[in-house]
Amino acid sequence: MPLRLQAITRDEHLAFVKSLPSASHMQVPSWGDVKSDWRAESLGWFEEDGRLVGVGLVLMRRPLPKLRRHLAYLPEGPVIDWYAPDLAERWLEPMLAYLKSRGAFSVKMGPPVVVRRWSADTVKAAIADPAARRLRGTRATEHDERAAAVADELRRTGWHQPDPGGEDGFAPGQPRYVFQVPFAGRTLEDIRSGFNQQWRRNIKKADKSGVKVVQGGYDDLPAFHELYVETAGRDRFVPRALPYFQRMWRVLTAEDPDRMRLYLAHHEGDVLAAATMLTVGGHVWYSYGASTSRKREVQPSNAIQWRMMTDAHELGASVYDLRGITDTLDDSSHLLGLLRFKVGTGGQAVEYLGEWDFPLNLLLHKALALYMSRR
Description:
By secondary structure, this protein is of the alpha+beta class. It has twelve helices and 15 strands. A hairpin with a 5-residue loop joins strand 2 and strand 3. The relative contact order is 0.17. Pfam families: FemAB.
């Protein structure tokens, strides 16, 4: 029998997330406040006895001019039992029916389901292999067969994955490939010993050079943003405006003082690098990073990552997530250097199931796809 789905309060939503080991930072109520140009709603799945067994943050937006219906988006969610044998009928069909009644013409979601993992050694070997072109074509260290069953069920019931598009494996939406450092059951020394020689050497050099990493606050966001804009120009992406980060800080820290942190690396009066860190339960994310091209020889980026990992470990993190990586292993890609940097932590490359669409109105769904392709 399908579960009952209805809107829930922010307090109910947050209490459920707190009862779990973790959930995506994009599935907590405050994330809806970060995305101020979307209308957010908290959804809850209930058993017959009234017990709340799943939640989801849905963001709704009218993406086309004069369109009276909206796109419904659940980034890295919803937070449900993705391995349930009756996933579609019991969990997803009530969601689709509810969102259709709320005026959605299309639903996009990102199941937090891991497909494969590659060890750091496997990724390094693939990068060094001239025949290797994509991470997806490299034999994985671990493979979760349950993910294939979830994908089959989604396809069977009308969900489909959009064209991945994007440059060098990065597509619109949330990253399918990320890099994570497992923390569970490991000491800080265990984690540091997993770094490659270059990482350990750079951390020592930063310390000897006098780099000081401090935890900042709201008033330090302009300094972060100045470096972030410089980074955007160097790495060829469009930066977000400062008010976005200021709103992000206000709403996330109001929900939980440790939900968002800001770190800055100082050297002889200069701020050389800065980064934001997000935490939900035992999952910690390196969210946004920024650095200047000046004084790169004192290794501020390694220093700031080590400080963030140290603090994440102190918070009881089970995983430190460095977020998106490129799928390409091509030496000509300007993103390969970022992959090499993250691989140096000795963690794992992780592939998620990716984002999926369900067109509730096929004509409007296709119109949106055409509109987005021409932007």
